[in-house]
Amino acid sequence: MIAVIRIRGTVNVNPGLTYTMENLRLFRPNHMVLLKDDKSSKKMIEKIKDYVAFGEINEETLAKVLIKRGKLEGKKKVTLEFLKEKKINSFEELAKSIIEGKVKFKDLGIVPVIRLHPPRKGHKRAGIKKPFTVGGALGNRGEEINKLIVKMN
């Protein structure tokens, strides 16, 4: 499962890139979506790599995000009682089943876009206009995306 976080804003963005980000439900900075690791998702991410950070999310980080930032339809929090109604015992179990592809947000009524906080202590390094490989915040982070998500949670 790939986590994609929009880093940059909307001003002076090519309309084709804006359309791609809207298809991925990334309308505003600091929003995160989870995508399957398939060819079409990778091509879309490759197209918008200069505006987003992405990488492989792990179960522990996803569980933390769902506890704090998970929302149901109608802006209600995802609670343990709600999960028990859906026959899921814990947030860790939910995170594992989402990453494995057994359960989808849509099936449970959870909003697929997760609204994160700007990263605490900033993006550091070279800011939001350079790729991760040269010290910036954009592009493929691999496993390092989990550290960014924890800072933004």
Automatic annotation (TrEMBL):
Keywords: Ribonucleoprotein, Ribosomal protein. The keyword Cell membrane does not apply. Transmembrane segments: none annotated. SUPFAM superfamilies: Ribosomal protein L30p/L7e. One of its GO terms (cellular component) is cytosolic large ribosomal subunit. It comes from the Archaea. One of its GO terms (biological process) is translation. Residues 2-52 form the Large ribosomal subunit protein uL30-like ferredoxin-like fold domain. GO terms for molecular function: RNA binding; structural constituent of ribosome. HAMAP family: Ribosomal_uL30_A (MF_01371_A). Belongs to the universal ribosomal protein uL30 family. This is Large ribosomal subunit protein uL30. It comes from Candidatus Iainarchaeum sp.
